[in-house]
């Protein structure tokens, strides 16, 4: 009996050990690690950093960069809270900055070691939850949740989020399925705060989304571009406008609806995990990527304007780059935009209602 | 060499042969399942961290009508897919069983082809085929058969087409195996005794091939009930399946204990199906067990 028990324990231990290797994908960029004393581990969103940047950084500083890609921020939080974190530099969505800071997951940034941070345009600083920029630094241009419509096929003029429930749009709407973007925007359009944790208000937002859902042809994970381009939908509530505008043929084809209740804004921030032992190297990397020439590579990778001041960028960007309608959007969009800060209680209520919304006919 | 020594060696060899499979099953089936069961009785803490406070709240929560609706929706999709797949698969399996051996092998390989390609690639191909400016609509419009594109994507039609395509091989193979084993003499005897083709089919062929049909039902229903990619990509994600719900608990909601409880319920539904199958006389070997 004892022998059997020992065998079972041994096998289970073996099973657990064999699972230890499972985790997120990590890529070693450029060179070999043999003989390298300096290296940092970064965890970033895919397709936001040009691959060449890591090699250029290594060439300039001798610090090797091991890159892992985030599949979702929740996975990153789980790793960091459970003490499994092995990263020295992590991308943090603006909506999650408050959570990261409040839970002591990030170290204070020493801006004396990041002189290039002065290049960042003022409008990007100050994430909700880190208004003094002590723990996070902006790393990407703003992304907005916008109502994008096909100028030729959209049958009505859209002036509010609630207009998406207009029967004329039946079967023509495509929407992102992000709980916070959907409920946040619905809450704002009803005159409430996107950060509301009131169940009554969220229920009211759910009612509005229920009416809109009758017109929705598809809820999509990240990109609504293909649904617009194939003609399956004439309107999309999405983040895709910058990507859509990367194609010149689309410049006159699609418009952005001006809505009273404003627009959800998110931009990427970076932070150094509190447990990192390579803080200096991580700050050196932060400083490196804030050079205008490097930012030019970032901007073109993601079809964005760059977070550096425009006068620093114009000389390093290709001619005509800023003619893109995305970079010349109505300034009212930026002025009338708001951030959402994720809250555990709020997301629990929203997700319950989201399940209800999707469970209904 | 003595007999007992030979027998010992044979046992040892047997053990060595089975050990890797046993370790694999324990490490990747039993241990994760035990962990899931354990987690389902724990409590969600701040930031989604699991707190080791035992509770049955996660199971109680499932009686909330919201979740019951999702489970019902998943069952409806799985049942319809299973019925249609088996109905379409049976004639195909009969055909493959009746043709010459060479043709039969070729058809079996063709049937298996979709399984060699990633499911995601297959579904994207369907999006390309079925969308408003896709291959089918473009062709029909080019030959002036239609003026406006047909609504082929993001509806129940697309879900059913995608589901049948994904699960047809799982249904056809066990039915083919059953039909192939059918003694042709019994069909002849039925005819000789005056039964027409329809009567022969319902009185002889169908009962004798029912183990294959049962196996096809199980093999289609089980993967189908937790599969949500088709409804998301071809159906437009306008309804939630139990698979979506579980995925969301482990990501958006960060409620791993509730996600684990939902997974346990899904596993129980599957076990129940297999139990009914065996009680009805089904053989686990036909399911590949």
UniProtKB/TrEMBL annotation, chain A:
The keyword Signal applies. It comes from the Bacteria. Pfam families: SBP_bac_8 (PF13416). It is found in: Periplasm. Residues 1-20 form the signal peptide. GO terms for biological process: polyamine transport. The keyword Transferase does not apply. One of its GO terms (cellular component) is periplasmic space. This is Extracellular solute-binding protein.
Automatic annotation (TrEMBL), chain B:
The keyword Transmembrane helix applies. GO terms for cellular component: plasma membrane. Gene3D superfamilies: MetI-like. The keyword Repeat does not apply. The chain crosses the membrane at residues 21-42, 75-97, 109-132, 152-173, 212-230, 256-277. Its main location: membrane. Residues 71-277 form the ABC transmembrane type-1 domain. It holds the Pfam family BPD_transp_1. Keywords: Cell membrane, Membrane, Transmembrane, Transmembrane helix, Transport. It is found in: Cell membrane. Belongs to the binding-protein-dependent transport system permease family. CysTW subfamily. This is ABC transporter permease. The lineage of its organism: Bacteria, Bacillati, Bacillota, Clostridia, Lachnospirales.
